[in-house]
Design goal:
The complex is a heterodimer of chains A (385) and B (503). The two termini of chain A are 41 Å apart. Chain A is α+β, with helices and mostly antiparallel strands and 385 residues long. Chain A is globular and about 65 Å long. In chain A, a hairpin with a 4-residue loop joins strand 15 and strand 16. Chain A contains twelve helices and 17 strands. Chain B is α+β, with helices and mostly antiparallel strands and 503 residues long. In chain B, helix 1 runs antiparallel to helix 3. Chain B has a seven-stranded antiparallel sheet with strand order 15-12-14-13-18-20-16, with helices on both faces. A five-stranded antiparallel sheet of chain B has the order 5-6-10-8-9. Classes of the chains: A alpha+beta (385), B alpha+beta (503). Chains A and B meet through strand 7, helix 5, strand 9, helix 7 and strand 14 of A and strand 9, helix 7, strand 11, helix 8 and helix 10 of B.
Chain lengths: 385, 503
């Protein structure tokens, strides 16, 4: 095993990705000792690596699937493993990882750091619900083993949930114990297209029946002015069949089943990185129509997708700093947090992944960072400048 | 009593004299929780009547540097709500209002003192329920559930407390009020709701809690399968979990526990000659498909050696089957003066092995062990009957508990799945977490409670960090030498933050 990016002379060779935990920790510690800010990168396909002031430490050398235990529904993987690689490794065991983030070939490290999940979030929970434990390296080079690899665990404070979705501000993820699901016996995707109003009414009618589809997504198909409703049903043959009938009768829509593997879901994921900026936000179903109207008006020209089960909205397009800040402030007034998932560095650094709209929260976060990364080695603009 | 008269008088001024308990006999009620091996009287107990009184009381306590311990119904099983004579218990049982139930967004906002089962009862008119259902749900409070990240039988399908809380209004230990999370679940920063849930009262007091509600499944079936071999029952659990069918609950009750239940008023009709029974509950929207799933599971149970499988469809019949499970601890409590309800988790594939190992440990220490637990999650509850007035037997219980924990950790598991660390399990924390990880936990605690006055001395042991400091030749922070294991004042804790990581 190579001992990482720090060579005998103490030089940090960032072109030679480290392949060990010790090397990863050592690289961070060495960079930290030199007060050299660093960004952690996976495949580089999610957020642009355009912060000239920070070095880039890649997880590409840490891409092993360490363990798959189908009987326990747990897999242990390194941060650099991509989602397609994980899916391919899990498939023969009849298990899967029910997280479908925006983007293409994201790494597990990237998915967990950004706490991001797609349409499946509505029916199966967000990324943080599928992580049992994490090993991460703090900004000061300390190795922390949070959580464990069992499905219930309340030993100590929940550092796992703290780190998932913190964009790497508290530490760089090295590996994770993931909670898997057994492959459902049947996995069906139903599609409809029409006006936004028709799709929304159909989705809410399905929800009102008490049905909880794995995904229930109202979205804008690429290159089209119409709207789409995509429904994913999973379970036993008879249960899925009954749910399918319930969807048809309650929505009143003409639902077409898609031949598996359904192309709708990867298409939605790709579309959410088609523009330079991606954001996610909470939603309320009561006034969702007005909310979508506001997004259209405030952030014109983008594409959005509504995860009805969560409920949550993801938007992708082009927008400048002022527009994003104005939009976030307006949403905060209605109690909806807006999280900037990805953007070019000049925008991200000013707008921040999160907005400071609740008194006291940023203070707690700052104190946590003071403990985990006192010198702010990890170049993560959690809150804007 | 070391809590100043001035502080107590200020608190009386806020809540009124009748809501401050100071007499020894009154304090006795608060000297224990569900853990029979520990006992500790607080200096005083304060019962605030509303959110503002909680805030004002915490501010007085913070001003005077008085440590405090929030307490719900006192049903906790790890000693987490016990306060020492230098601390004040803040009992939240009077904050018992369900503030809103929103059937469209499927959310409820409640005060911390709401009894768990009341929320589901109140939501039922909207066809909704609150999923986490600890066995103590008729007594325990949502606030306590937040502190412990409580589970329950139906968490197998629906997840634990942490999966159902979207927002919290908390009073930080310095009296500042902060809102974490939002109704939809998207946070205002990193997931501080996730960090707060399960922090065992060490990050402050939640005064308003927003939770998800789920639609009640109209069709429910409960299967009871009985096995002549504990091992075969464990194997059946793995087979069901791997099949991709997801029961709402998957519980196991072993022979000793069956016999205790069947000879009590909670008799559920379990076969008394079985080595174990499995209780499998399925829920869904439509009867036909559910019946087909039940048929498939029944076949799996029989294939794995079930002697018989009974299916209960009527509510009364199902309730009777569940009564044996839910009241098992009560039935076991009749056998001896005291009962330790242990809690640990193992990967479910090792369930058969670990149950044999636990039986061997109990035999070594001449104790009766009964298992009743969440088999689908691998969450064990080995229960040890004993008499605390017999110190020699108590010693054997403590040692057997330690060995059971060690066995579960060796099997790749953890020391608690839903009861928390509290005081009881502090000593095992170093068996699963290294020093840097424990220091990370203390750093997180420090961010919420720099003064270390909210439930000090629980969850994260200080001695490991002290050894770490000594080993590194660094100067130990003042007061690190805490009085471990009894619930202590803030001086027991080293400061967290950057300094605690050492040089």
């Amino acid at each position: 095993m190579r001992e990482a990016a720090v060579d005998a002379s103490g030089a940090v060779n960032l072109d030679q990705p480290t392949d060990s935990l010790a090397g990863f920790a050592n690289a961070l510690k060495t960079l930290g000792d030199r007060r050299q800010r660093v960004r952690i990168s996976g495949t580089g396909g999610w957020c642009p690596l355009d912060d000239a002031s920070a070095s880039v430490l890649s997880t590409a050398g840490m891409a092993r699937i360490i363990d798959i235990r189908p009987a326990d529904l747990v897999a242990t993987v390194e941060a650099g493993v991509t989602l397609p690689a994980l899916e391919a490794a899990l498939a023969p065991h009849g298990v899967w990882f029910p997280v479908d983030p925006p983007g293409v070939s994201r790494t597990i490290g990237s998915i967990l750091a950004s706490g991001t999940s797609g349409p499946l979030r509505g029916g199966m929970g967000s990324a943080r619900d599928h992580v049992l434990g994490l090993t991460f390296v703090t900004g000061s080079g300390r190795v922390v083993h949070a959580g464990g690899r069992v499905v219930k665990n309340v030993a100590g404070f929940d550092l796992t949930r703290l780190v998932v979705g913190s964009f790497g501000a508290f530490g760089a993820i090295h590996s994770a114990h993931l909670r898997l699901r057994a492959r459902p016996r049947r996995d069906v995707t139903l599609n409809a297209t029409g006006t936004r109003d028709e799709m929304l009414r159909g989705a809410l009618a399905i929800k009102d029946t008490g049905l909880n589809p794995a995904a229930l997504e109202v979205y804008q198909p690429p290159g089209s002015d119409t709207w789409g409703l995509a429904i994913r049903l999973m379970g036993s043959e008879p249960a899925v069949k009954a749910d399918e009938e319930a969807c048809r009768s309650s929505s009143g829509l003409s639902l077409v089943s898609e031949t598996p593997p359904a192309a709708t879901w990867p298409r939605i994921a790709e579309q959410m990185v088609a523009g330079p900026v991606t954001l996610r936000m909470g939603a309320a179903l009561k006034n969702v129509d007005a909310l979508l109207g506001t997004i259209d008006a405030e952030l014109p020209g983008g594409r959005l997708t509504l995860t009805c089960g969560a409920p949550a909205i993801r938007w992708c397009g082009a927008a400048d700093t002022d527009r994003l800040q104005r939009f976030r402030a307006r949403m905060a007034d209605t109690g909806l947090p807006v999280t900037l998932e990805r953007a070019p560095h000049p925008i991200l650094v000013q707008v921040g992944h999160f907005g400071e709209y609740r008194d006291g929260v940023a203070g707690i976060v700052r104190r946590i960072r003071d403990g985990f990364d006192p010198d702010r080695i990890l170049a993560v603009p959690l809150y804007g400048d | 009593v070391t809590v100043s008269q001035q502080a107590l008088e200020a608190i009386e001024g806020i809540v009124g004299r009748r809501w401050v308990r100071r007499a020894h006999a009154e304090l006795e009620t608060f000297a224990s929780d569900g853990l029979p091996t520990r006992h500790s009287k607080p200096a005083a107990v304060v019962l605030p009547g509303d959110r503002q009184e909680v805030i004002d009381v915490v501010r007085v306590l913070a001003h005077h540097g008085v440590p405090f311990v929030a307490r719900g119904a006192g049903t906790g099983l790890s000693g987490g709500a016990l306060a020492d004579p230098e601390s004040v218990n803040v009992a939240l049982t009077r904050l018992s209002r369900i503030l809103t139930i929103d059937p469209v967004e499927r959310r409820a906002v409640v005060e911390p003192g709401v009894v768990n089962v009341r929320l589901s009862q109140a939501a039922a008119v909207h066809g909704l329920f609150y999923a986490p259902d600890p066995s103590s749900q008729t007594a325990c409070t949502i606030g306590g559930n937040i502190a412990e990240n409580a589970g329950g039988p139906h968490c197998f399908k629906y997840g634990v407390t942490s999966n159902h809380v979207t927002a919290l209004e908390i009073v930080l230990p310095d009296g500042e009020v902060v809102t974490l999370g939002s109704e939809s679940g998207e946070p205002w920063g990193p997931d501080l709701v996730g960090a707060f849930v399960g922090s065992e009262g060490m990050f402050g007091i939640a005064v308003r809690i927003t939770v998800r509600l789920l639609p009640v499944a109209p069709c429910v079936l409960t299967l009871l399968a009985d096995f002549t071999s504990l091992r075969r029952a464990g194997e059946a659990v793995s087979a069901i979990v791997e099949s991709g069918l997801i029961p709402a609950a998957l519980e196991m009750i072993d022979k000793n526990c069956i016999q205790a239940v069947e000879s009590s008023i909670y008799a559920a009709g379990y076969p008394t000659d079985a080595a174990a029974v499995l209780l499998v509950e399925l829920d869904g929207r439509t009867e036909g498909p559910l019946g087909e799933e039940a048929g498939a599971i029944e076949q799996m149970l029989i294939d794995h050696g079930a002697r018989s499988v009974r299916t209960a469809t009527e509510a009364a019949e199902r309730a009777r089957l569940w009564q044996g499970r839910k009241k098992a601890f009560g039935a076991l409590g009749r056998i001896s003066p005291d009962l330790v309800v242990q809690d640990a988790v193992v990967p479910r594939s090792v369930l058969p092995d670990i149950l044999e190992e636990i039986a061997a440990i109990a035999e070594t220490y001449r104790l009766t062990v009964s298992n009743v637990f969440h088999a689908g999650d691998g969450n064990l509850h080995p229960n040890l009957n004993f008499d605390r007035s017999n110190p020699e037997e108590l010693e054997r219980v403590e040692r057997a508990s330690g060995e059971i924990m060690a066995a579960c950790v060796r099997a790749g598991g953890t020391i608690t799945g839903e009861h928390g660390v509290g005081i009881d399990k502090l000593r095992y924390m170093t068996s699963i977490f290294d020093r840097d990880t424990l220091t990370a936990m203390r750093t997180l605690r420090h961010a919420f409670d720099p003064a270390g006055i909210s439930n000090p001395g629980k969850v994260v042991p200080v001695h490991s960090c002290r050894e770490w400091w000594a080993a590194r030749g660094a100067n130990m922070p003042a007061g690190t030498a805490g009085r471990a294991g009894t619930g202590r004042g803030p001086a027991a804790e080293a400061p967290g933050g950057a300094e605690a990581w050492g040089a």
